[in-house]
Amino acid sequence: MKKTVLSLAIFCLAGLAANAQNPILRVNLNDPGIIPISYIPAAFMQEGQPGIAIATPDLSNEDEPTVNLNIYNTTFTSIGTASWTATYDEFESSRQGFSQNTQSWYTEDSWTNEAYKFPVVCVYTELGNSGIENASAFVVSQTLFNTNAAFEYILPRTELYYDTDYYNMDYNTDDYLNRDIDAHMGIYGLDIIDITDGSVVNTIMLPDGYYIIPYGDEEGLAVVAIVKLGNNYYMAFPAEKRSNDEDEDEITEILVYSLGQGNSPSSINRVDVQLPLSVFPTLVGRGNDITVEFGEGSNASQINVVNSLGQTVKTVPVQQGQRSVKVSTSNLSQGAHFITTRGNQTQKIIVR
User: Fold this and answer.
1) Which contacts of 94-99 are long-range, i.e. CB under 8 A and separated by 24 or more positions?
2) In terms of Cα–Cα distance, which of 234, 228, 280, 272 is closest to 253?
């Protein structure tokens, strides 16, 4: 039988007023006396007044507990309801050994992880001249995604992915003798749900191979930032690109999407964020390589090495989609040099 524990991630109303770093109230379905409350900022209510969302668990079906959400205005008049099943997933991880006789892997131990799918928590921050004026966390909105009166909330799209960690090498044969295969619930997209009928009104899909980094230890929980710039709203969240190639590094970056008014896919668009160059080491012995890394939003087609006189002394081509480049310093003179790319991104290095 499945466990009846659901850590429903809703930010506590009292914590919002006290601290912008809001604590997450984790609700145990075995203790339905604990009621999570979420504050809805006025910016995301059609009447321009803040609202309150109160979530309560329904344990009538123990294997598929339901969360009921009631939405109130400032006079505690009910203005909407929603409910969703706490979707439950089990996934198996294993520890394996390698048989050098048969040249094959066998299972030494296995264990089951489990997670519920949580509604996505949005964190909206208003900035003033003196810093943060208002920081609110919410799970429903009337105005963020479209202009109709219905409320929407966000549920993650999930799939399993696996991490493999090799260890305990036999240096006589160069064989790894053990590996751990850890299963995880990866959040690869976000569905925007109409509160009235549960239909999906829009979807945000991450680039291939990317998963939202979950909050804390809750694999099914995504927390996203909502930012207003001018009259436009943007959603941002940390994501990690996974690779099946054990020699390829995992890439972590912030993905940003513009949120337009409407239910068509074209109303939500990814924004290319050009990240600063990452160059290391910046103090390097002559003849050693340096590594230049840049984010997915980079449009660099080549790297230039410029000396202290402003002369380009080396050019290294960058292939489309390439995320890092090795640059040799063997033919560089000692002293200061500058690594530059298209868009005038620059990092200084010292060759000794």
Assistant:
1) 94/180, 94/181, 95/178, 95/179, 95/180, 95/181, 96/178, 96/179, 96/180, 96/181, 97/177, 97/178, 98/175, 98/176, 98/177, 98/178, 98/179
2) 272
- Domains for the chain: give ranges and CATH numbers: 10-271 (no CATH), 278-351 (2.60.40.1930)
The Cα–Cα gap between 131 and 134 comes to 9
What's the pTM value of the predicted model, to 2 decimals? 0.68
Residue 46 structure tokens = 């059609």
Q: Alpha-carbon distance 148 to 154, whole Å?
A: 16
Q: Which two tokens stand for residue 25?
A: 């109230």
Compute the 3-state secondary structure of the chain and give helix, strand, coil in percent, each to the nearest 5. Answer: 5, 55, 40
Give the pLDDT confidence of 68-91 residue by residue, as tens digits: 888 898 888 988 887 777 766 788
Tokens of 312: 């380009």
Collect all residues with Cβ–Cβ distance below 8 Å to 351 and sequence separation of at least 6: 284, 285, 286, 329, 332, 333, 334, 335, 336, 337
CA distance 68 to 86: 10
**Using one digit for the tens of pLDDT, what is the confidence trace for 267-279?**
888 887 666 677 8
**Dist. CA 310–CA 318, nearest whole Å:** 21
Q: What phi-psi label fits residue 290: left (phi over 0), alpha (psi between -120 and 50 degrees) or beta?
A: beta
Residue 276 preceded by cis peptide, ω within 30: no
Nearest to 87 by CA among 198, 223, 11, 162: 198
End-to-end CA distance of the chain: 65
